[in-house]
Structures are given as C-alpha cells and as structure tokens.
UniProtKB/TrEMBL annotation:
<feature type="binding site">
    <location>
        <position position="10"/>
    </location>
    <ligand>
        <name>Mg(2+)</name>
    </ligand>
</feature>
<feature type="binding site">
    <location>
        <position position="77"/>
    </location>
    <ligand>
        <name>substrate</name>
    </ligand>
</feature>
<protein>
    <recommendedName>
        <fullName>Beta-phosphoglucomutase</fullName>
        <ecNumber>5.4.2.6</ecNumber>
    </recommendedName>
</protein>
<feature type="binding site">
    <location>
        <begin position="45"/>
        <end position="50"/>
    </location>
    <ligand>
        <name>substrate</name>
    </ligand>
</feature>
<feature type="site" description="Important for catalytic activity and assists the phosphoryl transfer reaction to Asp8 by balancing charge and orienting the reacting groups">
    <location>
        <position position="146"/>
    </location>
</feature>
<dbReference type="GO" id="GO:0008801">
    <property type="term" value="F:beta-phosphoglucomutase activity"/>
</dbReference>
<feature type="binding site">
    <location>
        <begin position="115"/>
        <end position="119"/>
    </location>
    <ligand>
        <name>substrate</name>
    </ligand>
</feature>
<keyword id="KW-0479">Metal-binding</keyword>
<dbReference type="InterPro" id="IPR023214">
    <property type="entry name" value="HAD_sf"/>
</dbReference>
<dbReference type="InterPro" id="IPR010976">
    <property type="entry name" value="B-phosphoglucomutase_hydrolase"/>
</dbReference>
<feature type="binding site">
    <location>
        <position position="53"/>
    </location>
    <ligand>
        <name>substrate</name>
    </ligand>
</feature>
<dbReference type="GO" id="GO:0000287">
    <property type="term" value="F:magnesium ion binding"/>
</dbReference>
<feature type="binding site">
    <location>
        <position position="26"/>
    </location>
    <ligand>
        <name>substrate</name>
    </ligand>
</feature>
<keyword id="KW-0597">Phosphoprotein</keyword>
<feature type="binding site">
    <location>
        <position position="146"/>
    </location>
    <ligand>
        <name>substrate</name>
    </ligand>
</feature>
<dbReference type="InterPro" id="IPR006439">
    <property type="entry name" value="HAD-SF_hydro_IA"/>
</dbReference>
<feature type="site" description="Important for catalytic activity and assists the phosphoryl transfer reaction to Asp8 by balancing charge and orienting the reacting groups">
    <location>
        <position position="115"/>
    </location>
</feature>
Amino acid sequence: MTDIKACIFDLDGVIVDTAVYHYKAWKRLANELGFDFTEEQNEHLKGVSRVRSLQLILGWGGVTKTEAEQEELATRKNTWYVEMINQMTPAEILPGALEFLEACRADSLKTALGSASKNSMTILNKVGIAQLFDTIVDGNHVSAPKPDPEVFLKGAEALGVSPTECVVFEDAIAGVQAAKNGGMKAVGIGSVQTLTQADLVISGLNEMSLAKLKEL
Ligand code: BG6
Ligand code: MG
C-alpha cells in the first residue's frame, strides 16, 4: 500500500469515448485513398499520436506519401475529427468518470489529465469538466509519445507530487507502459488480456472507488 496523492487520467477511452470519432475520421481518409482497415487494426491506434497513426494506416494500405503530403492528410483527418467533437455534450462522459473525479477531489487527492491528444481542451470544454483537473498535460506539451512517460511525469511535476505517489488511469497498452516506465501505479480500463502490465484492470471508472485506490 502506497500513499497515493494524485490521480492522472488519460482522456480518450477513459473519460470520454472519442475513439469512435478517431476511427470514423481515419476510416474516411483511408477510404478516400482507396483502401480500408479493420476494427482490430484500429485497436493499435489507441494512445498513438496523430502522425504515428497516419503512418501505421498508410502502411496497412501499402501507400507511400511525402512528408508534406502526410501533413496535409493528418490535417484533413483532424478537420473531420474536430467537426465531430464540436458536437459533443456532457452526456458523452463515460459512466462513473464524473463521480470518480469528484470523489478524488473531495478526498483532497490531486487530479491531472495526461493525454496524447492536441484536441483535449476542446473536448473537456465541450463536456464541461476542465475545472475538475488541477493540471492538464496533453499532446501540445510533450515531445516524446507514450510509452515514454513524459506526459505523466510532467503532470506529477506540475502537481508537486512524486511519481510513486501517482496512479494513472489508461485504456491503451502504450499508456499503461508509459505509467509503469514513469514509476507510477497503473489502472487499466479494458481487458486483463490486453492490459497485462496494469496493477489493476477494470472495465470503466464506474468500477473504481477510493477504497480500491488505497489498496493499490
Ligand atoms: C490519443 C488517442 O488520446 O490521442 C489517439 O487515443 C489519437 O487515437 C491521439 O491519435 C492524438 O489525438 P489528436 O486529437 O491530437 O489527433
Ligand atoms: Mg486512451
């Protein structure tokens, strides 16, 4: 049992289910380029940066593009994605997320967002929960993508706590690895078969409680 002082949350797939919007936008782009990819392949895009996601997709389609073309394609995808997230409402907060964030704060635990997305502020403002985080670290603030722990270490530093006092909530394999690489506890959101490195795996934040947190 550790003295936990802070919880760091991934956004996509933990607080909101934006993975479906990422999938729709990437699929539209692939289709325009003349190919398709499966939902299973899409699993490998979770937690992965925009640029790297595009490179993986182009690889699946056997398509080669210059760096300038890649930039244009990533921008095109992001425009469609932003159109979708601009329609989001508080109803799209995943079950239990709001309640657990509020419980943490009521218990004087610090809270941070640690996301790879450059669109995190748009999403947080749309669903109305930006004020529930003491600090927000996202794709605009980091140079090394998950599984590098940079995003979570920056969060811990901003909160003034040490990595060993943090618990990270993540739905991506790369995200759980990033937490462990940073010396933090990791709670996986998803399946035990996929998130093998997590200290605890739950299906959603509706299964989380302060009692479970303190047992980690
Ligand atoms: C992660 C998502 O949170 O953010 C990835 O899991 C996404 O699917 C990545 O590619 C980057 O997001 P954005 O919004 O900056 O394109
Ligand atoms: Mg995620």
